């Protein structure tokens, strides 16, 4: 509210008196009494006009938004659960992430109705008693297993009812992914150490034997040196696979850009694995159409994929069996591009259904003793999986005990302009 001088008030009185005197003069009725009355009216009007003020209401200018509105907006955009409770441990506020984590969480209800965690509730009581921040943990089992670090601290709110008494804020930080990665790291180190410890122990044992009792035994020396060579090759293969897996994971997010012919790669790898197949008594054949099968890929990595699949089929297929490597061009459905599919089929003992989902895990083996006897490192299919992830491909393993195994690898066909690819369009391969 504000005031301004009211000058128009006495001006209006003067004009009104002048009009009345003029009218009376025209009518011939002007006398002394009328003149005295007019003078008094002017005097009173002037006094009122000088001291009078008119009140004018002014709207206050729009100020900044209320602070609790800003706080609500901040809470809504925090991805981790945040809960605010009062001294009675009744929920005052909670952000959407907290409501998703605790569907039973309701405002103005005790927190214990929805969060049944004694460590967290005890932490709140300690914060209210001492005022010091507390950290504890909270884990859920349903619907999925998750782990949280809960940071509990006092939060005075001067504008809230209660005269600024300290409330308590709970901040829950999701540790699920970090714990999973840590468990994977621990398992990986343990498995790698175990795989290396076995051949190292064998080497040390044979070296001690050759230095001691078998020092002059030429026959034992030749036998032990052969075993030592096998164990050393096993360690070399394991280290090579670990380095390959590390390199592939480092560039897994970068898609290849070179054009390669998957048919040529498969034929080359079959020729390289032919001596191993003859040694194992396995008939190894390749079937491919007489057309280029172009894909975008890293030639060395795709060679490793085919090598691992063919080597597994030859090693773990029954002696005297057949391993067939075939390639197919499969038209895409519903306007999707065609796929180039590589199939490796063996006549081995097959794999039980419960093992198939885990075959691409590092160091996972269906038969540990047989795999080590065959010289396997337990990393071959893990390398295949990560390589195909980089190439935007797909791996499918089909097997049934007693009926062999078929492994299928699908890669998108490279068709930059939608036309048929001719052999001249493919780059020369070494």
TrEMBL record:
<dbReference type="InterPro" id="IPR036097">
    <property type="entry name" value="HisK_dim/P_sf"/>
</dbReference>
<keyword id="KW-0472">Membrane</keyword>
<dbReference type="Pfam" id="PF02518">
    <property type="entry name" value="HATPase_c"/>
</dbReference>
<protein>
    <recommendedName>
        <fullName>histidine kinase</fullName>
        <ecNumber>2.7.13.3</ecNumber>
    </recommendedName>
</protein>
<dbReference type="InterPro" id="IPR005467">
    <property type="entry name" value="His_kinase_dom"/>
</dbReference>
<feature type="region of interest" description="Disordered">
    <location>
        <begin position="401"/>
        <end position="430"/>
    </location>
</feature>
<keyword id="KW-0597">Phosphoprotein</keyword>
<keyword id="KW-0547">Nucleotide-binding</keyword>
<dbReference type="InterPro" id="IPR035965">
    <property type="entry name" value="PAS-like_dom_sf"/>
</dbReference>
<keyword id="KW-0067">ATP-binding</keyword>
<dbReference type="InterPro" id="IPR004358">
    <property type="entry name" value="Sig_transdc_His_kin-like_C"/>
</dbReference>
<dbReference type="GO" id="GO:0000155">
    <property type="term" value="F:phosphorelay sensor kinase activity"/>
</dbReference>
<dbReference type="GO" id="GO:0016036">
    <property type="term" value="P:cellular response to phosphate starvation"/>
</dbReference>
<dbReference type="InterPro" id="IPR000014">
    <property type="entry name" value="PAS"/>
</dbReference>
<keyword id="KW-0808">Transferase</keyword>
<keyword id="KW-0902">Two-component regulatory system</keyword>
<dbReference type="GO" id="GO:0005524">
    <property type="term" value="F:ATP binding"/>
</dbReference>
<dbReference type="InterPro" id="IPR013656">
    <property type="entry name" value="PAS_4"/>
</dbReference>
<dbReference type="GO" id="GO:0005886">
    <property type="term" value="C:plasma membrane"/>
</dbReference>
<dbReference type="InterPro" id="IPR036890">
    <property type="entry name" value="HATPase_C_sf"/>
</dbReference>
<keyword id="KW-1003">Cell membrane</keyword>
<dbReference type="GO" id="GO:0004721">
    <property type="term" value="F:phosphoprotein phosphatase activity"/>
</dbReference>
<feature type="domain" description="Histidine kinase">
    <location>
        <begin position="191"/>
        <end position="415"/>
    </location>
</feature>
<dbReference type="InterPro" id="IPR003661">
    <property type="entry name" value="HisK_dim/P_dom"/>
</dbReference>
<dbReference type="InterPro" id="IPR050351">
    <property type="entry name" value="BphY/WalK/GraS-like"/>
</dbReference>
<keyword id="KW-0418">Kinase</keyword>
<dbReference type="InterPro" id="IPR003594">
    <property type="entry name" value="HATPase_dom"/>
</dbReference>
<dbReference type="Pfam" id="PF08448">
    <property type="entry name" value="PAS_4"/>
</dbReference>
<dbReference type="Pfam" id="PF00512">
    <property type="entry name" value="HisKA"/>
</dbReference>
